[in-house]
């Protein structure tokens, strides 16, 4: 594909909230080998950061993902502090974003890995994340200067109520869900974008990591392959959660082990009624179209969606 003939994505808006300050991308200076990990949130973000970090550092034991791979558009710490830290990094950089494509400055030279997950699984993981957040989490988001929009409040006791609020108000109280998926699905055929699905990683982690390595142009030493797979396993990440959770997990009751929670899908099946689940599925088809909705629910290995 001739890059000169490609209509590359352009930034068309800013996003601000208790979490977001998208303006940081306007001042970020890309390097040709940068990697950007995109997700909606609670879709396997930390897992993908761990995978990319393990590939870059060849299966090293002490890769501190939160330090090495910051969430760039999170509005804390201040963007000047974050930009200086990222600019000082000498290794191949791998950054995290939860923005839709049209709120990013998109580099034709960087590589973008986007991981998706069924929205019901996202919601279940997000509820745990939100319900276990402590006073320090709320202080960081709501009391740091520069808040635009409403502060974030504690969740309701009922996860079913949380599900309906999130679905009926499109991502409330975090940020819009459907536009995030739709924007990344739209650019899936660009030569520097790779879509990965949480369910596919669960089904064949080794195969998916090999696919990611190939996309990133990383040649893995066969002697390091077993270490990479071990360090990307859920059991390993759970045992070493302090090196995966932001600030070692200080924002959540129960610490880092709360942040690295279960890593499983389908917990909603025991709570949602058939009608409630069907409501989500109808909305997914309406908002995304059949192909994208099917991919979001099942991944590529269901052999019915070609995202290449």
Automatic annotation (TrEMBL):
Pfam short name (any one): Sulfotransfer_1
Domain Sulfotransferase: 32-288
Transmembrane segments: none
Keyword GTP-binding: no
SUPFAM superfamilies: P-loop containing nucleoside triphosphate hydrolases
Its EC number(s): 2.8.2.-
Any one GO molecular function term: sulfotransferase activity
Keywords carried by this UniProt record: Transferase
Top EC class for this record: transferase
Family, similarity comment: Belongs to the sulfotransferase 1 family.
Stated name of the protein: Glycolipid sulfotransferase
Organism: Albidovulum aquaemixtae
Organismal lineage: Bacteria, Pseudomonadati, Pseudomonadota, Alphaproteobacteria, Rhodobacterales
